[in-house]
Design brief:
This protein is mainly alpha-helical. It has 4 helices and no strands. The protein has one domain. The longest helix is centred in the first third of the chain and has 28 residues.
Amino acid sequence: MFRNFKDLRYGWGLSWTHIGTTERRDRLFLLAAMAFVLLILLGAAGEHTGLDKRLKTSTRPGRQLSLFRQGMRWYELLPGLKDEVLRPLTDAFYALLERQPLFRQVFGTL
């Protein structure tokens, strides 16, 4: 994900942007890093509940998609998920999120 920030194909295309201050840039990177971690936790929640089998393209054992890719896919599918899939996924996500001390401090009562 972070291999080259300026590369349009593999990075974030930052050569095309202009960020006025380093403080603003740092805040944007902090938000991006937090979103990255949240998507990884969502992918881990899918694996924890066994829902990762729905994302696999073959019957080969083991992980085929990274936790980040799984999290991105689950995030895309969230609006259309049925309750019998959504409930275990969100419960596992919140359980994983509660185990992360930094997120507990940052998001506390949310």
